[in-house]
Request: fold
Amino acid sequence: MTVARPMNVFDIAGRAMSAQLVRLNTTASNLANAGSVSSTKEGAFRALKPVFETVSGGPGIATVGVSQVVQSDVEPVKLHSPGNPLADANGDVWQAGVDTSAELIDMVESARQYQNNVQVLQTAKTLTLDTLRLGQ
Amino acid sequence: MADDQSLFGIHGTALALRSQRLSILASNIANAATPGYKARDIDFSRALDLASRGSSVDQAANDAVAYRVPVTPSLDGNTVELSTEQTEFAENAVQYRTTLSFLQSRISTIQRALKGE
Reply:
């Protein structure tokens, strides 16, 4: 993907922030669906994972984007629960394939990386403003 | 360019290079979680040397870009180490400010000379 004008720090950090936000959104939806059950294995919820991809903006300069969101390979768990209205003929239900602890770790990591990008943006902004004030 | 050089000396070039390095370090921080991304950095003294020998600032910065050697390589092929990148970023920001204050003092010297105070 090409950008007409050269990419600056604000583009780099801004797009990285939106990528991290997509990651945070998928984590939130995974955690929200963690306890949901389904009557078939195929119908059970599987965790969603964003795929990060480097977006080049010239030599040495690159930001990050989400190229696609894929389903993870964590298998749904079979539970025996005859009382459940969704249970199949054997009295089993399938619980969403979400690794809750991994999702929580992902959440903390993406929040930290979002903060790092905010910090980069803040530093770049201060330096640009200082440069503008040069000679005054 | 030649006029810039005589007025601001090496500091004009240094400021442009610091700004380029800021973008590259920001790229590394942005790609901290991208599998397979290789962290890069500018060898600042080499870039400044090239620029003072007559290369343009962009050319000098591009020629002095190199991949960073990670302390502990990670399994997904990403070589960004946030501790290193954040330290380098902070250091570069301080050095950018230093260059700014050199420029500032040069400007006030000239202004004082112009006003004849």
Notes: The mean pLDDT of chain B is 90. Chain B touches chain A at residues 15, 20, 22-24, 26-27, 29-37, 40, 42, 61-62, 65, 82, 86, 89-90, 93, 96-97, 100, 103-104, 107-108, 111 (CB under 8 Å). The two ends of chain B are 29 Å apart (CA to CA). The first strand of chain B starts at residue 40 and ends at 42.
